[in-house]
Design goal:
eight-stranded mixed sheet; 12% strand; 412 residues
């Protein structure tokens, strides 16, 4: 699967939610009026694009509609795609040009910082670069051990202190060691912290200050890891973290598990911070560089891929074959086993009518007298229970009639 396919697969939930509702909206209107724009604004807001960003998109769309004289709602999609592409701007990757390139990874608890560090380390090692990881999350239980496992998988070195030690000291030692060893990339883990905890945010300021002092002249990135499933709350986190550390890029994780991928547009427009990496799965290569063009193309893509068409057509062909087989089976009488030596079709099988037992006619009616017993019928196979019930009812009725005749003879 290529990079675009991974982005498209990761955006499937966002696309199905946003584009599906957009198609419904366009089909519901025959002209573009103010009511249409009000519905479009509401749609964008509920897709986690944000209030300010949604209003801005609609204002730009109004201007384009007026400028080009667009009247058909179906032509809105291409204009909307162009506006969003302009908002996302140019792609900006992670700068590792001057070594040691120092990457400081920050974010709230559970956003996916440790996993992101492990995947980044594996990526740079595959590119032939030397990597050093700083285990500066000294507060969370087993955080250092977890990062040690990732470092071993990636083949990277690690600098760590005891649990509860000063995180800033770990970062200082890691950057110093990287300079001495000529390491290409240093990735610094930090403790997860809520953006509304002042003491923890002050500690982050200290770490950021040491990084800037020690890595002067080096490539420096401060990546904020955000969970895409949090929607607009991710924007609020970014605003507050940006006040503490100068964020150079966003890593948006768990994009494949949410329909709130529109948050990328809001982050670009409201904060001016580029999204540099997106997580679209759990595998090592599922941490992808963000490309605005691929994002927009995947979001507005209308044609399904070949694999999907193939599966759908195959299912239809199978269903047609099943229908033809069922029709053929209806025309061919089913063979029901009667006994070990005989078989008879269901069409020829004797079925009772009107609740009475059907007795085969004798060749000569005179051959059967009133006192003679009716010859026993042969076994009726799987329908035998029907004949038993009917025979039982017939027998009971015959006994009642016989009793009535005897009583009448006695009375006479």
């Amino acid at each position: 699967m290529n990079i675009f396919s991974k982005i498209a697969a990761g955006l499937k939930k966002t696309k199905d939610s946003m584009m599906g509702r957009l198609e419904t909206l366009m089909n519901s209107f025959t002209k573009i009026d103010e009511e249409f724009f009000e519905e479009l604004e509401e749609l964008l807001i509920t897709c986690d694009i944000g209030v300010e960003t949604s209003l801005d998109i609609c204002d730009k769309l109004r201007a384009k509609v007026k400028e080009k004289g667009i009247k058909d709602p179906s032509e809105i999609k291409s204009e909307l795609k162009e506006i969003i592409a302009e908002m996302l701007g140019e792609d900006k990757g992670i700068d590792t040009s001057n070594k040691p390139a120092v990457i400081l990874v920050i974010g709230v608890n559970g956003a996916g910082k440790t996993t992101t560090i492990g995947k980044l380390a594996a990526r740079y090692k595959n590119e032939g670069k030397s990597v050093l990881i700083a285990a500066a999350d000294t507060f969370r239980a087993a955080a250092i051990d977890q990062l040690q496992v990732w470092a071993e998988r990636a083949g990277a070195d690690i600098v760590k202190h005891d649990e509860g030690s000063d995180p800033a000291a770990v970062v200082f030692d890691a950057v110093t060691a990287a300079k001495a060893r000529g390491t290409d990339v240093v990735i610094c883990d930090t403790a997860g912290r809520l953006h509304n905890k002042k003491n923890l945010m002050d500690e982050l300021k200290k770490i950021s200050r040491i990084v800037h002092q020690q890595a002067e002249g080096c490539s420096l990135e401060t990546l904020l890891v955000l969970d895409a499933t949090t929607g607009q709350n991710a924007v609020n986190q970014a605003k507050l973290f940006n006040e503490t550390s100068e964020i150079t890029g966003i890593v948006l994780t768990k994009l494949d598990g949410t329909a709130k991928g529109g948050i990328i547009i809001s982050i670009h427009r409201e904060l001016g911070i580029p999204v540099k990496l997106v997580g679209v799965g759990e595998k090592l290569d599922d941490l992808q560089d963000f490309h605005a063009k691929d994002f927009v193309d995947a979001l507005f893509e209308t044609e399904t891929d070949f694999d999907y068409n193939y599966e759908r057509l195959t299912d239809e062909e199978n269903s047609e074959e099943n229908i033809s087989e069922e029709a053929a089976e209806e025309n061919v009488p089913e063979i029901t086993e009667i006994n070990d030596n005989e078989t008879v079709s269901e069409e020829e099988e004797i079925i009772p009518e009107n609740g009475e037992e059907i007795i085969p006619e004798a060749e000569n009616a005179e051959d059967i007298s009133e006192n003679e017993e009716v010859p026993k019928k042969k076994d009726h196979g799987k329908f035998e229970f029907l004949f038993k019930e009917i025979t039982f009812g017939k027998k009971k009725k015959s006994e009642e009639n016989s009793d009535d005749e005897n009583n009448s003879e006695e009375s006479e």
